[in-house]
Amino acid sequence: MTASTASKETLGFQAEVKQLLHLMIHSLYSNKEIFLRELISNASDACDKLRFEALNNAALYGDDSELKIRVSFDKEARTITVSDNGIGLSREEAIAHLGTIAKSGTKEFFSALTGDQAKDAHLIGQFGVGFYSSFIVADKVTVVSRRAGLPANQAVCWESSGEGDFSVEMVEKAGRGTDVILHLREGEDEFLNAWRLKSIIRKYSDHITLPILMAGEKWDEEKKEQVPSGEDETVNQASALWARSKSDITDEQYKAFYKHVAHDFEDPLTWVHAKVEGKQEYTQLLYIPGRAPFDLWDRNARHGVKLYVKRVFIMDDAEKLMPLYLRFVRGVVDSADLPLNVSREILQESKDIEAIRNGCTRKVLSMLESLAESEDPAEQEKYARFWREFGKVLKEGVGEDFANKDKIAGLLRFASTHAGTPDETVSLKDYIGRMKEGQEKIYYVTADSFKAALNSPHLEIFRKKGIEVLLLSDRVDEWVVGNLTEFDGKPLQSVAKGCLDLGKLEDEAEKKEAEKAADEYKELLGKIKAALGDRVKDVRVTHRLTDSPSCLVSDEFDLSGNLARILKAAGQKAPDVKPILEINPNHPAVQRLKYEETRFDDWACLLFEQALLAEGGQLDDPASFVRRINDLMLALSAK
């Protein structure tokens, strides 16, 4: 490497990088060796990118078509160097990639930090900030890189001591690719050891498909020590793990490969490895992570399945290989049939890709089914953990994947009145197994929180009769019940919509009593409706309440109150649908209203407003509600 005539330029780091470097240098010392895993992973990515670009421009290889990674160290200079002959960096790319962090992940990265050094170190790769882990062991990092296709004098030298700035200058470099040179801090000499470096490589990077080379060593009997052999040694297995037979792969190797493709430090929850033969031939190695990624709720974020064709890397965010509701899946798909120059445009239209996508979707759902239906407590706990991390996302599939809707429905879990706690969930199959004799429907209630659902006045008659009700409090649940109308032949029915029909669970005496109350209170219902005006669609006697004086329900085909609030909170205009007010004729407040004359309108408004609050709604005029309550309390106390 020689400097060109271009002058050296010093630039400042992005503010987030400064914060990150301070964290690396001063906090994350619990697992220093991760720096080598991250640098080798970056080198592997650089080679994959060259391979992809060279599909349309073979000249990028020049006279060096054998891609590889090299790790070396110099005891005297106290440096470690990780080199690759991949795509390399131009001057602009070096500044952009090494001086800034993608804005999308920065905030989430820092908010995810726990203060626990071991756990925080695990986040480094996941958030795409692995290069900066070099500063855990180095007080200066030098990067010399030449982008494929650029002349030798267009290489760039990037250098920083991890403080507030970095320098860049144009230099000469004989071959393409990148050399990352770590100048070790005092006390880090443990890494200036071939055995130590090789053990780290085999621990974290054995699955890398490129050869990772180190200088070979041999025993010198005279010196009684290891000396250079003059030949290179391939440290890792350097073969595509997914292409090997399952019987030849250990669980530890599967886990190590997952950590590489997912940039995760934790073990996966489970995985599936299969070779599909037939009209399309492809291999799939798909993982369910043990923890939700930080960008899980960003539906536009990169997806986690890498596409290979005949073991040649094509792209690492092949969103067409997995539906959006399975965006948490990580792994690789290697096709034997797709053309090597496959592009994103081809992915959009390819029938082969559609078949691969369908096959991968079915395989993931079947993998989850086997966990969910297992009688092994360990497997059951795995599914419970999966549901805690990814259940809300899986629910999206009910409306997005018609072909697999029934299979997805069987995987869903909900809180219910059977358990009464948000952590203990039930499946729809469990619910049906506990249905009372004569029960024909699966009952549910939606609300904006578990407590609001559990304490909903709509549940009163169901508690009295011992009928289980599902408690739906996730925002996505309104989407679920809007698309899932039945399960196993049993219709799903909201307890807060339409006229309540308990069918065979309601005895004749109850029906007659309800009809009598409706006739007896007919005049009062008319007066309440007149007092409330256009705030309600109708007023009627309830069949749902046993303790509360009133509740609000929606017409059978109208938007529920909870969904209307969700749409409003999301900034969307919801249809102006009026609720129905139901009153409980057995409640003292309603019976008193029959004889109220002076403040009838206030009492009628109070019945409506407390029903609205009980279901989680918001009052249009809270001040008037408070004033009305105070006036009625004073009037009652005066008597």
Task: Give your account of this protein's structure.
By secondary structure, this protein is an alpha+beta fold. Helix content is 38%, strand content 20%. A hairpin with a 4-residue loop joins strand 9 and strand 10. The longest helix is centred in the middle third of the chain and has 23 residues, at 351-373. The N and C termini lie far apart (98 Å). The model is unreliable at 102-107 and 120-127 (pLDDT under 50).
CATH fold label of the largest domain = Heat Shock Protein 90
Estimate the strand proportion.
15-25%
Cα separation of the termini: 98 Å
Question: Can you count the helices?
Answer: 22
Name the helicity range: 25-40%
CATH superfamily of the largest domain: Histidine kinase-like ATPase, C-terminal domain
CATH architecture of the largest domain: 2-Layer Sandwich
Radius of gyration: 33 Å
> Spans of 5+ residues with little confidence (pLDDT < 50)?
102-107, 120-127
CATH class of the largest domain equals: Alpha Beta
Shape: elongated
Structural class by sheet pairing and helices: alpha+beta
**Biggest β-sheet description:** 10 strands, mixed
**Whole-number count of domains:** 4
**Count of β-strands:** 23
Mean pLDDT: 85
